[in-house]
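Design request, tokens follow.
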């Protein structure tokens, strides 16, 4: 298991072909292992670019904070 934090924003394609955004928060336990909780947003996007634009506008996400799956 890696001890590094995961990127806080995940853009992934769902079964219907739409892109969905997951907001992830990482905290570390007393031994230094990451504990990640995630929240899938209700909104879907037609392209990954629109999802990334949404994250930059609404959450002030940097390009380095966003990952794709």
């Amino acid at each position: 298991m890696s001890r590094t934090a995961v990127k806080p924003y995940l853009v992934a394609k769902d079964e219907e072909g739409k892109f969905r955004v997951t907001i992830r928060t990482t905290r570390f336990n007393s031994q230094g292992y990451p504990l990640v909780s995630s929240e899938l947003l209700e909104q879907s996007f037609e392209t990954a670019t629109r999802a990334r634009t949404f994250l930059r506008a609404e959450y002030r996400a940097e390009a380095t904070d966003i990952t794709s799956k």
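Comment from the thread starter after seeing the answer: thanks! The mean pLDDT is 91.
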